[in-house]
Fold this protein.
Amino acid sequence: MESNIVDRHVVSLREKLETDPHRARYIATVYGEGYRLIAGEDESAETLV
C-alpha cells in the first residue's frame, strides 16, 4: 500500500470540488496534522484526516 494514498485522494477531490485546485477553498492542508474541510462562509473547519 502506498504511503501517500490519502494525498492522492485529496488531490482528486480538490480537482472535482475546487474552482482552482491550487487555491483550496473547501479542503485545507494542515501541515503536520492532515487536512481540514472548510465548512461554510465563516471558514470554521472540521478535521478530516
